[in-house]
Amino acid sequence: MKGTKSPINRVGTPFVHVKDLQKSAAWYAELLGKESPKVDPDHPVHYYELEGGGGFLLDDDRNNAPGTEASIMLHTEDIDAAYSFVKEKGGIIVREIERHPDVSFFNFKDPDGNVLMICEQHENS
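RE: above sequence
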């Protein structure tokens, strides 16, 4: 059985939700054998790149309402098509599309209540 072509085209980054971004970033740096990072106090996330091309985001959730914290990011090349597709498939939108110069994203719940993010990175970033 062949499914409908999806505008969601790859798995992206997992999120680790933390209470203190500075403290957690330093702890993960030590755990991963990396230099202690310079974490921007005005930014709610810090990305760790790992060998082999993967990585993860530490997120202090300052910009997330309770119940909207994503566990993983999926990627698309068309955020509007992905939004419509998720709604058509029964996903429950918990954070509307946010558009920024470098990225657009939204969060939704799957049928089991898991929160995921779909992200489009813009070419000009």
